[in-house]
Structures are given as structure tokens and as C-alpha cells.
Amino acid sequence: MAGKSKLLKVVLLGDGGVGKSSLMNRFVSNKFDAQSFHTIGVEFLNKDVEVDSEAYTMQIWDTAGQERFKSLRTPFYRGADCCLLTYAVDDLQSFKNLAMWKKEFLFYADIQDGNSFPFVVLGNKIDVENRLVPEEEAKAWCAANGGSPYFETSAKDSTNVDRAFKSAVQRLRELEDRMDIKPAHGNTVDLQKKSKSNPGCCG
Prior knowledge:
Elements lengths: L5 E9 L5 H10 L12 E10 L2 E10 L6 H4 L8 E7 L3 H5 L1 H11 L10 E6 L10 H10 L5 E3 L8 H21 L1 H20 L1
Parallel strand pairs: 1-3, 1-4, 4-5, 5-6
Antiparallel strand pairs: 2-3
């Protein structure tokens, strides 16, 4: 089964300090380091998962959130299959910056239609007491941005981390299924072309 595993490139995006590295490490190795440092540039880890009885190898790219590392991270957006937009629920600015991260990703990944790309939004650090971003507000943002799935996570106590990453694969499958349906519309156009020629035959 390992030989049939499909490789998926997953990019983690969000402000520095929202817990992207902690989420990746919790998902891949089930570890949490309270002393973890900011990522410099980009690093990645692989994790084999099974979603709907199919094997995938998720290659998760953790990018540095600081502005000074922009030129280091943006080349890695190309070829991504999914993107996890991450903010911290105790950091209002990191939530407000989600739109900026999405725009940056779409531009450098050269994706024309953002609504047909699998984004998943993570509100991390739900273990903290001083929450500043209401869940309803985050869900409203997701609804207004292509209906992206939303998960509230905690890398510290592992809440929803596994579900959130696997949902990126499910979202990709959903959107691919929709794309597979699209050729049917092409056939409709052909039928219309034929029907247009019919009056000529009968005239």
C-alpha cells in the first residue's frame, strides 16, 4: 500500500508565533515543545495518512511568518496541493492578516481561482484563556472565502490537530470531484452547437 501512496504538498501559512511549527510537529510526531523557536525560512516534514481508504504522504511545508523571510518562503508555494491558513485565537492581528496570507499564496503559487483551491483555516491556541477572536467571526470569514473548512486547534493538547490536517486532504478530494464533473458541461455546449445546425438542415 505504501507504494501507491499519493504525495501531497501542504503549505502552512500564517503570522509568526501562531504555532505553525508546533502544529506540524504535533501532527507528524505527536510532540509539543513549549520552547520552540521561530522558523527561519522554510522546513518540511512528511507524514503518511489514510483518508477514505486511500494512502497519502503529506509533505508539510512550515513557512516563516515574518515579513523579512518573504523572499525565502514564497518560492515554495508553487506546486502546493493544499494550504492551511493559520492564526492564533489570542492574537487578533493574526486573524486580520489571513486575507493577506491568502492573497500572497494565490499570487506566488500562480493560482487564478482561489475558490477552487483547497484552503483550510485553523484557529490555533484554543488552550489559552485570553481569547480575542470569536469562533463565529472566524466561521463567517471562512464562509465569505470560498467556504473553507474551519478547525479550532491546540498544538499543546493536540485538540483537532489530526482532524484539521486530514481535512485538507478531504477538501482537496471534494474539489477534485467537482472538477471531474465539469466536463459534462462541455458536452452540453456540443449539443447546443449541433442543435444550432439543425435549422440549416431543415430549411
